[in-house]
Amino acid sequence: MFLRYNSWILVSLLSGISFIITAIEQNDVPSKVAVAGYDLRGYVAEKIQGFGYVLHLKKENDRLLAQNSRLLTKLLVAETALQRQNALLNIHAATPPAMQGFKTARVIDRTFSERENMLLVDKGRNEGIRKDMTVLTPDGLVGRVVSVSAHYASIMPLIHSDFKVSVVSAGTRTTGLVSWDGGRADMANVEHIPISSTLATGEELLTTDFSTFAIAGLPVGRVTSVMPGRLFSMVKMKPAVDFSRLDYVLLAPLNNEPEKLRMLSTPGPGKREPLTQQ
Length: 278
Fold this sequence. Notes:
This protein is of the alpha+beta class. The chain has 2 domains: 12-94; 103-257, Thrombin, subunit H, CATH 2.40.10.340. The chain has helices at residues 2-27, 29-94, 258-265; strands at 103-111, 118-121, 134-137, 140-148, 153-157, 164-169, 175-179, 188-194, 204-207, 219-227, 232-239, 248-251. The strands form 2 sheets. The protein has a 6-stranded antiparallel β-barrel with strand order 1-2-5-4-3-12. It is rod-shaped. Residues 107-251 form the Rod shape-determining protein MreC beta-barrel core domain. It comes from Pelodictyon luteolum. This is Cell shape-determining protein MreC. Pfam families: MreC (PF04085).
């Protein structure tokens, strides 16, 4: 009886194993496992390739950005050089024949404030620039040279509170003194105009022979208003030069006359020594 039961158990066990093997073969589990493995490997490989491609794109983008930056820098430098060349050609073209021998300099720095504006140009002592030279453009007076180094010169423009220059009106020949008391760069004062003067708005003002530095006949500005006071009129003038657009300037030879300067600086009866060159 024991053998009979054992035989039955053995048959059942073998049948179960056969059933399992048959089910596995029918479901093709090994193939599915293999396919899943292939899919996983392909997915991982694809991701790795994608990551490598992203790294390649980043390197390529960085290279292109650096190249574009270099090209943009070269373009800006070329455009700046072209603009400067055009500005230089324009000032030469607008310069009257009488001024063709004047030295040309480029404004390389400027300090603007409420009362003390200054300009710096790229010409100095080595290029023949001297203190008190007249600085101008074809439009008119800019200022005068106040200090010089080997390669640079500082210019005090008309829009500086210490700057003064004598002027005469082109129409009525009224003389006065131009000064600037700060604020707007497109407006200056004309002092010492008596109320009896016939000076009118719109008249052009020119430098005079009275000046100790400026050559005579340069446009300085144009009268914009005349308001009579007690003894003198309050006169406003618009400068001939647009100081916000200065690029190149001209420097005229020195107009100093030593004998004249000595006479002006020698105090006489009731005469005070001048504080500022005009």
